[in-house]
Amino acid sequence: MPNATDPPRPDDGAPAPDGRHLTAxxxxxxxxxxxxxxxVGGLLWAVALTxxxxxxxxxxxxLTQGLVGAAMLGTAPGLFTVGGARAWHEVRSLVxxxxxxxxxxxxxxxxxAGSLYIARGGPVVPVLFSLGWLFVLxxxxxxxxxxxxxxxxxxxxxxGPSAAPLPAWSKPALAVLGSAWLGIGTGLxxxxxxxxxxxxxxxxxxxxxxxxxxxxxxxxxxLAALAEDDLxxxxxxLTALPGTGVAFAAVLACRASAVDWSSGPALSLVAMVxxxxxxxxxxxxxxxxxxxxxxxxxxxx
Length: 301
Known about the structure:
Elements: E1 19-20, H1 24-49, H2 62-80, H3 92-111, H4 117-120, H5 124-153, E2 156-157, H6 170-190, H7 192-195, H8 205-228, H9 235-254, H10 264-289, H11 295-299
């Protein structure tokens, strides 16, 4: 029992969360990436909708850059909510995929640096954009590694039992969805020359690996949410999924003429994008109906 002379703690009056406290560095990282994603992702997405090609490297088809921009734009709302969380386990199903994206895109950009406009030359705007792409990605990648190391070194308490477990009927579908994104992402990253043949539009090596990074991150995010088995711990990820699905669908609809819709991969892609949208919207509905959605109301905050 604390003594009357003990100094008051900053969190007196509020229960300490289970697990590790969310560090300020992770919240700052998520907000910074969200802002960059809105600006850069929105630009890539909007330009691709018009059918023009714009990006840090030359792409045979604007659809590729549009999907990269759509992924950035769609995840931004979820990233903005990270700072409102108290504990690490409430946001890790979104932040860990974020680290995959930052480190993955920076790595494939370096490995294919000869394909960037800054190396091959071209119009001034794409050259400057490719320079900024590499510089900002490098900074954010280093920042992510530092903040995640700091986060995992932060002491914490054991995480309590799940307050709002996933419905049993949803788990097989989430496992298939996450494995599908994880599998195609790994293939595009490791063997882009082979797996790019399964992409139903024209892509180059850097195109394939950039798409692979995002596919891998989406797979990690879905499977991480499945491993959490708690709707209350996946709020930011559930916010990101619907927006990403809608942004993907808009690009595919506007650039439908570039896609070989008669192929199996095209139909699989439609199913996987629909899966993201369904998982996100369905998860939000279930979360709103669960007890995990009302902890702040109960505590009076």
